[in-house]
Design brief:
There is one protein chain. It is built from 16 helices and no strands. The protein is mainly α and about 325 residues long. The longest helix has 30 residues.
């Protein structure tokens, strides 16, 4: 019940805590989630990362002691996911690689596909794009063949991140849009569970699909956890890129600042850094927009065409002064 409530965007901590508190430590199946594992997943998805890490480490120790290899694989994979979000990528990579290798020997196909998600994701974040693409592509194919919506979404999220990182925003939109659609069709209310909306919104903006980006914003703001820092910050960050793309520079700067403020306490260093990056992007565009406007006032009719071929951020104040144009910074 606690996990389902979390997935739907309802606070599930109380029920998961109650189940864990009443648990006698018995394991009903060598491949089942124990109440501790469920509470760990709820904590992870509610971004209580320190608590999630402690629970997964305890689950891992129990599984190793009792020789429950499939549970060991699952606990290690979830621990890797937690470490990824907490920014401990080196340890996350070690955990993920161990979980994936162990899964091939001691777990069923579904668990193996799930374990590979953390390895593909952390690899993509570290810039190992080709190996991560290979892992995610193979795992996505297996997930789709078995109708596993959860891991289909997971591996599409990795492929979308890889495409955007490689500079192919349209490919990112193509691979992530079905994942977002599946999340909405399945009734996911907590849109921070998967790294889909954060990448899709940026990809749509970069690809010039501003209506698509605004649809991501609308979905984030209207979901049950829309006021929580992750969704609120991603929504503002995406809308800042849209406003910047439409040359509404003052609005874009204000939205980017709102995103930074929303993410100030977010326990995910990567998302905080991405938000700061977007703030830098829209502020540079705003400065360039002001410079372009000022320069345009001093050029003869028809000369504005040259501005598209000049990176005004690289033009020194002295060069601008020499041309009779005031530098705006």
């Amino acid at each position: 019940l606690g996990f389902t409530e979390c997935m739907l965007g309802r606070p599930g901590g109380r029920h998961a805590h109650e189940a864990f508190a009443a648990w006698d430590g018995s394991v009903l199946s060598p491949t089942a989630y124990t109440p501790r594992m469920i509470l760990g997943c709820v904590s992870l998805h509610e971004l209580e990362l320190a608590r999630a890490e402690e629970l997964f480490r305890d689950e891992l120790a129990m599984a190793q002691e009792q020789g429950l290899e499939a549970i060991e694989v699952m606990a290690r994979a979830h621990l890797a996911e937690t470490l990824i979000r907490a920014g401990h990528w080196a340890e996350a990579l070690r955990c993920a690689e161990e979980a994936t290798a162990h899964a091939r020997q001691a777990a069923n196909e579904q668990i193996a596909v799930g374990a590979s998600f953390a390895q593909a994701l952390v690899g993509a974040l570290l810039g190992h794009l080709d190996p991560s693409r290979t892992i995610a592509t193979a795992s996505l194919r297996r997930a789709e063949e078995t109708g596993d919506a959860w891991f289909t979404i997971s591996h599409r999220s990795v492929l979308g991140l890889i495409a955007l990182t490689a500079g192919d925003a349209r490919a990112a939109v193509e691979v992530l849009s079905p994942a977002r659609r599946t999340m909405l069709e399945r009734g996911f209310g907590n849109l921070s569970i998967f790294p889909v909306a954060n990448v899709l919104g940026e990809a749509c903006a970069d690809a010039g699909e501003l209506a698509g980006a605004l649809e991501v914003v609308r979905t984030l703001r209207s979901c049950p956890v829309g006021d929580e820092p992750w969704c609120a910050g991603i929504a503002a960050r995406t809308e800042a890129l849209v406003a910047s793309g439409e040359a509404r520079h003052e609005e874009s700067v204000a939205l980017a600042q709102a995103a930074v403020e929303a993410h100030a306490g977010l326990p995910e260093p990567f998302e905080r850094a991405r938000t700061r990056h977007v703030q830098g992007v829209v502020e540079r565009r705003a400065r360039r927009g002001r410079r372009t406007k000022d320069l345009g006032k001093r050029l003869r009719p028809g000369d504005l065409a040259i501005i598209d071929h000049v990176d005004l951020d690289r033009v020194s104040a002295e060069e601008l002064a020499g041309s009779g144009v005031r530098a705006v910074v």
